[in-house]
Design brief:
The chain has six helices and five strands, in the order E-H-E-H-E-H-E-H-E-H-H. The chain is an alpha/beta fold. It has a single domain, classed as HUPs (Rossmann fold, 3-Layer(aba) Sandwich). The N and C termini lie far apart (45 Å). Keywords: ATP-binding, Coenzyme A biosynthesis, Cytoplasm, Magnesium, Nucleotide-binding, Nucleotidyltransferase, Transferase. It is an enzyme of class 2 (transferase).
Amino acid sequence: MRIGLYPGTFDPVTLGHLDIIERAMALVDRLVIGVAINRDKGPLFALEERVAMVQAECAKITERRGGEIVVHPFENLLIDCAKDVGASVIVRGLRAVADFEYEFQMVGMNRALDASVETVFLMADARRQAIASKLVKEIARLGGDVSKFVTPDVRTKLVGKFSA
């Protein structure tokens, strides 16, 4: 069984993330969505909220397409998380050249730690390349419409965070 790991903070999960998840499903038998705890980023949503959002959105994907998606919170090294879940492939989404430079460094470090785990890059769909969770949160915080960037359920949660 080919297991892939798609890591991120998913704060919140966006249409860009969901696009990568759907496309990664074609590459693996099981896709593990690694929701990073990453206290340094100071997420808007608590870990439990992010996990629940990702699970709800992924359930819609598996209902529509089939396949297996598992949501797995983690706080250790990415390469150790890959070992923990049995992943032989790490899936990363790229939006622009700037993403590639950072990801290139990460691949080098991960390969030095464990060369048996391969990294696969998927380019974001052209309609989704500008979507970044950080920008989506800023738009929502300032009262803008984020419906082009997230699902209706995630939009409701975002608006709720900033209307309190």
